[in-house]
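ok trying again, last paste got cut off:
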Amino acid sequence: MKKVILGLFALMMTIGAFAQMPQFNAEDMAKMRADRIKETCKTSDDQYKKIYDYFLKESKAMMEQFQQGGGPGGFDMEAMQKRMQEQEKFLKGVLTEDQYKKYDEEMQRMRQGGPGGFGGGFGR
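nice, full thing came through this time. structure:
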């Protein structure tokens, strides 16, 4: 449950990034998130493509919801929790155990207020 709640924080950071930077499109957001995981977890090209494609689909869905009036305050918490659980399951299936551990450590750092993170942090 703690991971779900903390994961929601990461999702909200991504949503905040959408609100603050309208010049970014779904492709930019997916690339930024996939690039961050590639850098941290040292993914293969095949893993990167799977992760990018997944985040592209998710970014498009979030942008569509945002544009239809479901802005940051309009998201259904249950749907967000489900989306985060699906993301965790997806990443566990794509990343190796060691890579996922690195991903999880980066998420922990972000949750504790550290620099960067996967949820929309832009720099270290």
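cool. The first helix runs from residue 2 to 20. Residues 2-111 form one domain.
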